[in-house]
Amino acid sequence: MSITGPGTKLSGREFDVATVRADFPILSRKINDHPLVYLDNAATTQKPRQVIDAISNYYEQTNSNVHRGVHTLSIEATDAYEVARAKVAKFINAPRPETVIWTRNTSESLNLVAATWADKNVGEGDNIVITAMEHHSNIVPWQQLAARKHAELRYLAAGKDGLLDMANIESTIDSRTKIVSATHISNVLGTVNPVAELANRAHEVGAVILIDAAQSVPHMAVDVQAIDADFLCFSAHKMLGPTGIGVLYGKYDLLDEMPPFMFGGDMILEVTYEDAKWNELPYKFEAGTPNIADAIATGVAVDYLTDLEMDNVWEHEQQLTAYALDRLTALNGITIFGPEDPALRGGVISFVHDKIHPHDLGTALDQQGIAIRTGHHCAMPLIRSYDVVAAARASFYVYNTKTEIDALVSGINDTERYFVR
Ligand code: C6P
After folding, report:
1. Whose C-alpha in 55, 91, 197, 306 is 20 to 30 A from the C-alpha of 24?
2. Distance from the CA of 9 to the center of ligand 1, in angstroms?
3. What CATH fold (topology level) applies to the domain 17-47+309-419?
4. What is the CATH code of the structural domain delimited by 52-307?
5. Best substitution site from 106, 337, 372 to test ligand 1's pocket, by max atoms within 8 Å of Cβ?
6. Average pLDDT, whole number, for the chain?
7. Is the pTM of this model over 0.85?
8. What single string gives the DSSP state of each residue in 57-93?
């Protein structure tokens, strides 16, 4: 697995958070008369000026449809759209740009694989393996598919330590497994899962692996070839890019054999009154006018992260996470979910307070300008397995600082003084 953990040497350049912060206009906003402390990055990240400008520049200078025109604007738009795809391919070390499909988001990418590859390849009596720590977007499509195909949906269990129970991997992923679909980093527990090991086991039994990288690609160097991922997906909005655009990576031969997901313009080569032939990759999976501006802006977000260097991004978040775990653990009445060892987790910390409901805590923190997420985090089965219905969650990114974690801790203390008398 290509992840960079603690102890990794930085590549020489300082990670200068103050310089990074200056690129994000929203970070100078005040919320309820306090400076914004944005700790809801697992939900969506803020956007740097470069990404915002890329969107307005596109509409001011280039706006046109792609793959259709012979005029200058259409050629420029097409070039920029394809350059962005190539940047994303390089970012995840995909062997060729055609293996990167633009979708709307991670959810759509997961649904695409379930509705095409899995619909074609999963039959009665087969099984699909996911983990106990999946987001709803990586549970519900498989529940639906399993019901439709009379297949079994299996879960690789997770222990209370927040780690997958890898001891059961051989009995869970067996000769009737057709696909394993697993999150790389849990959006609730922060756990970094051993996806290369899962891929290896899937391949041993002739299954394919789909990796939900919504919470990993934005934060660490991910190499699809090193992991040997068959499919991998993520959303631009969680990595400094715009909403409404995401990625599905797939191995060329798998994508080539898959039926299309949606039908319409651009995804066809030839249409007669009777029938149609599908276009080559990646266009077979991009029916209709795509989200051109946001694809181009995603390329700019990738440039931004590439410039920071993903090893530095990971190292920065590791330091913040270790610091936040230390400070939160020292508070009374707080239970933190997920691995105790910061080296086993990304920058996501979910927790509950024994006397303050997460929604009350979130609302009180907002009064102090601090944005966290509260609720089930779209992972109801996992949250319920901890005997709670909701949790508070702080999640970090490139622009966060230890001072902001101090603000979170003092915000919790202030809330406690108000609620617990
Ligand atoms: N998690 C969170 O606050 P979309 O919404 O399609 O861009 O991403 C879905 C998704 C899939 N997998 C994982 C691991 C995720 O974390 C998410 C999005 C957000 O945790 C919004 S619910």
Report:
1. 91
2. 30
3. Aspartate Aminotransferase, domain 1 (3.90.1150)
4. 3.40.640.10
5. 106
6. 95
7. yes
8. HIIIII---SSS--SHHHHHHHHHHHHHHHHHHHHTT
